[in-house]
Amino acid sequence: MSSKRGTLLDIPEEPIHTRGKGIRILHTKKIPILDDAGRPRSAGISEDITERKRSRRKSSGSASANIDGLAGAARRIGQQLAGIAFLAEALAGS
Fold first, then answer.
1. CA distances from 38 to 29, 33, 35, 41, 91 (A)
2. Are 27 and 46 in contact (CB under 8 A)?
3. pLDDT of 80
4. Closest residue by Cα to residue 14 from 44, 42, 46, 43
5. By the 8 A CB rule, do 34 and 41 touch?
């Protein structure tokens, strides 16, 4: 990716390969700076967001598991209520 002159380039997720930690995900911001000869050079800063991304994935996975669990519980309660209503009607008719 190249930066336009004077324009901040924001890269929300940039995977990099590291020797010690494997693949890491960085949030990087770059800005072009001209050297003495007028040639553009790039200056930037990166933040390692790998763990933040992992924890978000885990929490969204837990949330969907919770939703599935709640949906199952609601189904079971609905079945039990239907059974109770059936028995109440049967008892009322006798």
1. 21, 9, 5, 9, 93
2. yes
3. 79
4. 46
5. yes
